[in-house]
Amino acid sequence: MLRAAVLLAFAAAPLVAQTRPPITAEVRPFVAVDAPVVALTHVRLIDGTGAPPREDQTVVINGTQITAVGPSATTTPPAGARVIDLTGHSVTPGLVGLHEHTYFGGVRRITQMSTSAPLLYLAFGVTTAMTAGSMLPYQELAMKRAVDLGRTPGPDFRITGPYLDGASARSTNARALASPEEVKRVITYWADEGATWVKVQGTISRATLRDVVREAHARGVKVTGHLCSITFAEAAELGLDALQHGFITASDYVPGKQPDACPAGNMRVQTDVDVASAEVQASIRALAGTKTAVVSTLAVYETFSPERFQIDTASLEMLDPEVRREVEANYANIAKGGLIVTNGLLQKMMRWERDFVAAGGLLGAGSDPWGTGFLPGYGNVRNYEMLLEAGFSPAAAIQVLTLNGARILGLDARIGAVTVGRQADLVVVRGDPVQRPRDLYNVVTVFRAGVGYDAAKLKDAARGLVGVR
Ligand SMILES: [Zn+2]
């Protein structure tokens, strides 16, 4: 009898768990579409799986889930569905960001963006956002809680907690870990507080990273890193889950690299590395054969390139006026900055990522907002244009931004693609980002778990706040 009841309960359970914050009075003004059944008809669909874009499709949403996807000619909206004719529009899965910050760094006063970051991420289609290091971890946790409780619209945040580093850390923003006991205490603490990832920084030793990975994995927490002291090959061997930034931070290729030491000027040394060389190509193939993923952050590095970076006036409008003046001064002095990324180096980063994917490696992407004028949401979309420049097809670039990210987070059974049975996280854009990449900025509606949010209202609510709130 008990056995039968258990089986019945199992059979009645939904295919996959769904997450949907409540629509409260605070969130309601941002909601454009909230109906039990919704049919988006006549859309161009880039579904996130890497399949070629398909014209004139219909996507049916029932509650939180996608229940039908097919040609509009043969996919009839269910009786009673709210039918939205989206001729001239395109649909992609909700973006999955893997290097998101909710503080604004790179300016004199670091602030938590608990109001503007959730709004801007969602406004540009980011429905799942893994933070990659927090400066103000309790404010970040409180921000996630506000989204989960329906006090503000925002993406499904996955929180990393504070930056972690090794005992020799000179950084003043990281927890320097000196012993296995400390590692266990700190990881246990942040796992209990809700972190599902931890982020390590660039002077950690192999022994300490081994401890971090062991303790994190024992708690079901994954580990990402912006490395320097540890090579990509060593990190993969130690079981790191995701390497941030790709080629520019890989110390594998630095001549005379000493174990556990971050070589001086690491990121500049890469300018002289030949990505086409047999040595680098072999390292790419070896890394692609491991379980360690890579997170592309091409677009933020472009903001350190005097040859290339054009500050975006639309994103400048989102800044607090005082912070805006500071960002504009940063831009005016870009060539005198501490980090200069040449176009040649960017091209090497692009080639390395393309070859990594061609070799079977798992590549996701994140924005890494920064005081160079690089904002949440805008940065995630800019990555799409950069991945196209790197040689990915539109479908492959969208896959990096969506389903691959979901795979890295271990959420791909539920999110990351516009397919039947997955959660209805999707982005409606005006135009055709296959033919005109910039059209991906023209977000009209963002669906998170079947609820459609008005992108323009989300942006309006964030205007003038970035850098302060
Ligand atoms: Zn970062």
Keyword list:
21% strand; binds zinc ion; 469 residues; Urease, subunit C, domain 1; nine-stranded mixed beta sheet; globular; seven-stranded parallel beta sheet; 16 helices; single chain; TIM Barrel; disordered N terminus; 2 domains; alpha/beta
Characterization of the model:
The longest helix has 16 residues, at 343-358. This protein is globular. The protein has 469 residues and is of the alpha/beta class. Strands 1, 2, 3, 4, 5, 6, 19, 20 and 21 form a nine-stranded mixed sheet that branches. A seven-stranded parallel sheet has the order 13-12-14-15-16-17-18, sandwiched between helices. The chain has a three-stranded parallel sheet with strand order 7-10-11, sandwiched between helices. Helix 13 crosses helix 14. Helix content is 32%, strand content 21%. Strand 8 and strand 9 form a beta hairpin. The chain has helices at residues 2-12, 116-123, 137-148, 180-193, 206-218, 232-238, 266-269, 278-288, 298-302, 313-316, 321-332, 343-358, 378-389, 394-401, 403-409, 455-462; strands at 31-33, 37-45, 54-62, 65-71, 82-85, 89-93, 95-100, 103-104, 111-112, 126-131, 156-158, 163-166, 174-177, 197-200, 222-225, 242-244, 293-296, 363-365, 426-430, 443-448, 451-454. It folds into two domains: 16-93 and 419-462, Urease, subunit C, domain 1 (Roll); 95-409, TIM Barrel (Alpha-Beta Barrel). Residues 99, 101, 132-133, 368 line the site of zinc ion. Zinc ion is lined by residues 99, 101, 132-133, 368.
